[in-house]
Amino acid sequence: MKKIWKFLSSMKFAIILLAVLALACSAASLITQGQSYEWYARQYSERTAALIVALHLDDAFHSAWFLLINAFLCVNLLFCNLLRLPQLIARTKAEADPARAIETEGTAQAGPVRDPGRVFKRLRMPNPISTATADGREALFSSAHRAGLWGAWVCHLGILLLILGFGLGQMTQRQYTVYGVPGQTRPIGDTGYLLTIDDFEVGLRPDDTVEQYTADITVRDVDGRGSQSASVSVNNPASLYGMKFYQNSTGWAAKINVQKDGAPLQDDVVCAGEYLAVKDKPELVVFFSAFYPDYVMTPGVGPSTATGALKNPAYLYQVYYKEQLLGMNVLMPEEELTIDEYTVTFTDPQNYTLIQIKVDHFTWLALIGGLLTMLGLILAFYVQPARVWAMKGDAGWTIHGLSRKGGALFRDRLIAAAREEDADASS
Fold first, then answer.
1. Do 229 and 268 have their domain in common?
2. How many CA within 13 A on the CB side of residue 9?
3. Who contacts 201 (Cβ-Cβ below 8 Å, separation ≥6)?
4. How many C-alpha atoms does 332 have within 13 Å on its Cβ side?
5. What residues of the chain score a pLDDT lower than 50?
6. Which of 36, 101, 314, 387 is the most exposed place for a label (fewest CB within 10 A)?
7. DSSP states along 175-218
8. How many CA atoms lie within 13 A of 119 on its CB side?
């Protein structure tokens, strides 16, 4: 059992896990995630597709084996921190023990000096405490920056919480997609909240290329007890009611007007890729297949758009009756589609926004882990524990110091401080 405990908390096991994790991430990055078996078979071969699906490489970062690797890494970090904790506490106490410091051979020594207190101040050490050596000589002692001893430990704890926050978040995360045009209100899955698209703007550069997509949204619960609003743009998500809202993409929508025997029947906004069932004959369906803002017909290629600007709009539609295709064509704004007593027209093309919503209850844990990791790195690299003590002799005070981080620089600082004090005293 001791051997298992020792191996699970060893650096060797951590290096093995990190190597396996790096290989797994590299393999997953080379394979397009979230596709079907048929897609992988077309891209590679049936045998490779079967292997990808069997090993869950199509969704590697949510697979059991990937989570297991991370779980073992968490166990390694936890055991490592638990084993080191008693030693670290003892070492921190030892750093403040004047008797132990005086018995230790320091990395730096200078003197004699007349006023050791001023040397302590030059080194920016806390006020020294009075003590005595084993042979009864008067001594002064001060220690500083003991928090630097905890750098690696805090960093390991931060990485542990970071992995736990990410892993638990991936296991419990829920994602929803809501799309529509300004004025529409759609439910956010099964969350009990409604999302209203207040406005949507496509920002263009001087050359008419897209610079930014920005949607103004309002989220309220279905009971109407409260609401929160925000603007969402690409790379600028918003947080409302514990959910994260991302501006994911955009597309085209249009208003489809249906008349029956010349009388208005329905007037709905439909996004490209959606179906519209005729209100009094639901088995009759109009499918808004695609929209071309600057329509051109190229022989041998078919309908396409010359530019992204709204110059010559056209609508590609398909009509179904009882799931049987009746026909398809491209309809211009001034044209009408007649189906028996029904007349269909397409008008008012506009961009719709697609908002992606993520619910992750462990983001806070990953955030704390990230902050602790940064704190640990700062403590490890920039906070240098130091002990300085002075012992009185016949010729004056001798200054000693010890710092295991940047020992050479610390020695130079201590010698320089002693010389400056000696020069000031002589003058």
1. no
2. 14
3. 213, 214, 215
4. 8
5. none
6. 36
7. EEEEEE-TT-EEE-TTSSEEEEEEEEEEEE-TTS-EEEEEEEEE
8. 33
In a domain, 373, yes or no: no
The residue type at 368: I
Q: What is the pLDDT of residue 39?
A: 83
Q: Let me know: does 344 contact 254? Beta carbons within 8 Å.
A: no
Sequence-distant (≥ 6) Cβ neighbours of residue 131 within 8 angstroms: 98, 99, 102, 139, 140, 141
Name the 3-class secondary structure at 100.
helix
- Which pLDDT belongs to residue 100? 85
Are 346 and 259 in the same domain? yes
User: In angstroms, rounded to a whole number, what is the distance separating the alpha carbons of residues 286 and 279?
Assistant: 11
**61 and 8 within one domain:** yes
Asked if 340 and 395 sit in the same domain, the reply is no
Instruction: Tell me, yes or no, whether 226 lies in a domain.
Output: yes
**pTM score above 0.85:** no
Residue that finishes a domain, picked among 329, 353, 377: 353
Query: Cβ(149)–Cβ(161) under 8 Å?
Result: no
**Residue 184 and residue 237 in one domain:** yes
Domain check: are 274 and 307 in the same one?
A: yes
Examine the domain organization and report whether 308 and 287 are in the same domain. yes
What size, in residues, is the chain? 427
User: Domain of 17?
Assistant: 2-66
If one counts the domains in the chain, the total is: 4
Within 10 angstroms of residue 43's Cβ, the number of other Cβ atoms is 13
Position 266 scores a pLDDT of 95
Boundary (domain end) residue, out of 229, 249, 269: 249
pLDDT, one tens digit per residue, over 138-177 is: 999 999 999 999 999 999 999 999 888 888 887 788 889 9
What confidence tens digit (pLDDT) does each residue in 231-271 have?
Answer: 999 999 999 998 999 998 889 999 999 999 999 999 999 99
Cα→Cα distances 314→110, 154, 273, 318, 333, Å? 88, 61, 15, 13, 7
Q: Are residues 230 and 282 in the same domain?
A: no
Q: Does any domain span residue 91? A: no
Q: CB 233: neighbour CB atoms within 10 A?
A: 16
- Of 306, 272, 277, 305, nearest to 289 by C-alpha is 272
Q: How far is CA 35 from the centre of its chain?
A: 23
What distance, in Å, lies between the first and last C-alpha atoms of the chain?
Answer: 68
